[in-house]
């Protein structure tokens, strides 16, 4: 017998806008995440291997069924182009039987040590602008801080697979590249501008 923790997570991008946290206001995408967590009992059965016997154990084995109830966690993750990480997480509770069905249980935010387009020309070297965002067919990728040298623009899906690659070179206004995304599935994508010399600059967009 073995005790197994089973976790399933459903992630979707369902909003975009401006988020204000200590340190400033930032353009963000909002990811909605629902995580299901439960304990399960597996038994090693000859020939068949490991099988889930949780229901049989609670009904016939005298174990408390409440120990194996499914826990559900709801949260919003706010993502900004200028940060490689989520800048804020809001965890909330949905109590369908209570008088207050939805309430916030925890808020976390990142200390603002990243740059965004709204911070002005001082952050130009670390800024990538993508518009429209979300987009259906084409996006314009702009990096005003890139002034010389060719670069690759890579786009990855949520699984980290490269789905698009383009080559470009900056002009007088920096890098301005038009990408055809009509062949991509709907969802959130992460991209990188990779100069021939210098550090990669990340960006994100949503294909609607």
- Average pLDDT across residues? 77
Instruction: Report the helical percentage.
Output: under 10%
Sheet with most strands: 6 strands, antiparallel
Indicate the proportion of strand residues: over 45%
Structure description:
The structure is a single chain. By secondary structure, this protein is mainly beta. The protein folds into two domains: 2-109, no CATH class; 119-207, Immunoglobulin-like (Sandwich), CATH 2.60.40. 3% of the residues lie in helices and 56% in strands. It contains one helix and 13 strands; from the N terminus they run βββαββββββββββ. It has one helix at 54-60; strands at residues 2-21, 24-45, 49-52, 71-79, 86-94, 102-109, 129-131, 138-143, 151-156, 162-168, 175-180, 187-195, 201-207. Strands 1, 2, 3, 4, 5 and 6 form a six-stranded antiparallel sheet that branches. It has a four-stranded antiparallel sheet with strand order 10-9-12-13, with no helix packed on it. The longest helix has 7 residues, at 54-60. The N and C termini lie far apart (46 Å). Residues 113-126 have low confidence and may be disordered.
